[in-house]
Amino acid sequence: xxxDELRAMQAPLKDRYRADPAQAVVTxxxxxxxxxxxxxxxxxxxxxxxxxxxxxxxxxxxxxxxSGDMLLxxxxxxxxxxxxxxxxxxxxxxxxxxxxxxxxxDFRGTLGVDREAPVGFQAIRLSFRLDTDADEAALxxxxxxxxxxxVVLQTIATPTKVDATVRAAA
Length: 170
Fold this sequence. Notes:
By secondary structure, the chain is of the alpha+beta class. It has helices spanning 3-19, 67-89, 107-110, 136-149, 151-157; strands spanning 32-33, 40-44, 49-53, 96-105, 121-131. The protein starts with a helix and ends in a 13-residue tail after the last helix.
């Protein structure tokens, strides 16, 4: 796909969203099942069933997915797709590349070992290694727009209000 094809594909959507902004608001869904043995949650991804469990640093076996890893994987996926779309729109040729995401956690917080230790990632690093002939200015613009339009990155960088509830099943 080239930039013109991408713009042609997205033009009707952009026109519809400009005319009726409510059409642009879409609610995405995810759910997990707590059925089964052990400390785990089964999540249907749309392509596969993933069973998430405790990270080995909190007593897990390492045989199940870690939700922290899944968060970083979601960032890698979103940033990679966004970068590809932006590169296409800017006519920057990418022959290939890698998206690398790292995050630092202090497990004392989530285990309640130290109440002063934060729960969650303290730092996340996102980087790209690209096979391209683009110059530094083009790469800087590519990164700027990727950061701006990556949904997962923006959600992490500017946290969204989350409402949590619990109730007994009927």
